[in-house]
Amino acid sequence: MTFHPRERQVPRRLFIRWGAYGVAAAGLSPAVLAACGGGDEGAGSSEGVKLSRPDDPATLPTFDDVEAIADGLSPETGTLRVYNYEEYIAPEVVAAFEQEFGVSVEITTFTSMDEAVAKLASGEVAFDVFFPTPDVVGKLAAGKLLQPLNKTYLGNLENVWESLRDPFYDQGSVFTVPYTLYTTGIGYRIDAVAKTPEDYDNPYDIFWDPANAGQVYVLEDDREVFAMALLRADPDVDVNTEDADLIAGALADVSELTELVKVKVGSQAYTVLPEKRTWVHQAWSGDAINAQYYLPEGETIDNIGYWANPQGVIGSDTIAVLRSATKPVLAHAFLNFLLDTDRALENYGWLGYQPPQLSLQPDQVVADEYVPAHLATAVIRAEDFEAGQQLLQLTLEGERIWDDAWSTFTAGG
Q: What digits encode the pLDDT tens for the residues 200-222?
């Protein structure tokens, strides 16, 4: 069975899982473990890295013994080693890079971000290129797992949104370049539900509607599920809250779904919706777009709808060069290749997840049939990041609160 990239990102944001990956965490370096705590300390201090927020960005630490490569070097030959989620890059784009540079690309996959970071930090694996999520970039930088980028090799960085050339989670793009974007919303079968999300006073109520009993999925991701419940209760809530009472309230609300609609947990909206194996699925925008490629015979994408809260969850994924890279110049060339406008759009057509390219205009995306017209709500604009909220790194205590609540929910408690 092949997996869609977002399915392989579960659970994608918890760095130290207080269960299965607790053992793996034991192999992490002290610097990485210290960075997990966040807090008020300055970036690069021995106590950890300050948690970065849009209104209070933190500059990531650099170190004298982890330097960027020099200018004017030629790309290495041989095999570029890439560490990525499964099926999170178009094979045609990889093949084009191999042909242009006369090299091979070897992609090794992981199933979750916590697994990947634990393996990298333990020294168990070594790669040239890694695809981290923003919530772990600070930890990786503090743990000396990333190398600073040399922008002279990244001319195509000018092709992306200005806001993501200098993101709050990595000011100055010292360690990362942007890759893809997504919103988290509601995928649904237009031909099956009695009421679409817009028909409710609160669109999230579609998950709690007994009329959809047996036909409801939420994502297999604690941060996404509880963020949805928090936003349903209070549209102005901070989805990165560490308030135990708020998380307990979200747990209570989500737990109601078991009795009301016999909720299921999964991350395959891109297949189960077009196959009509469910009517309502918490979904990422890329899955709604990708559904058109998984339609059974006789089905039409016109039956798939998508709603996203403008003040809801929005996010981006990144690409970085690892300190362990043996081919760092070629790795920079790979990042620059993926930032090329034509290659980024080719990747978009296969992946379904939107790149933050300046040339990508919402109306044109629909006109060029990357996105069906009625799913235009899945197209993301730079200004959407002003209204939406990103799921960001928490303190260790905050992670514990969220994870304990998720364990209670999945255990049926």
A: 999 999 999 999 999 999 998 89
